[in-house]
Please model this.
Amino acid sequence: MTKTKIVLTLFLRLLAFGATIAATVVMVTTHDSAEVLNLTFTAKYSNQPAFVYFVIAEAIASGYSLIVLFTCYHNSLWRLVLILDAGIAMLLSSSVSAALAIAQVGKKGNSHAGWLPICGQVPKYCDHVSGALLASFAAAIIYFVLIFSSLYSLQNPLFM
Model:
């Protein structure tokens, strides 16, 4: 790999690590409570299985990003890293999709199922979830860019 490609790849991996760790921390620390008819209910990420899956997937991606940051790019492991990058990108996109579906129901509700929107009662919770989803979406895009960059290098060996 050329020096420029290594620096760019490390920068993208550092951005992906930052985005996944930010999404994990923001989602885990999000909670809010509201009082409706003298009943207090608390909204937190652990109440929804899709959000729990989101946090686990983000934590896995964060750990993987941290490990790959410290691997050497001059050996033959980069092909394995390419395959693992694809797996992480799929994991991130599936977790964002699941969490986004639940967030949409929380924001808009579902009149056919009789589910009311909750973001009017717990706006801080919804804002934190939105921030975590944006960070994770950015990480997924970065991983797709890393995959395309690696595939381009594989196709054109002069740029490796």
Notes: The CA atoms of residues 51 and 62 lie 16 Å apart. The first helix runs from residue 3 to 28.
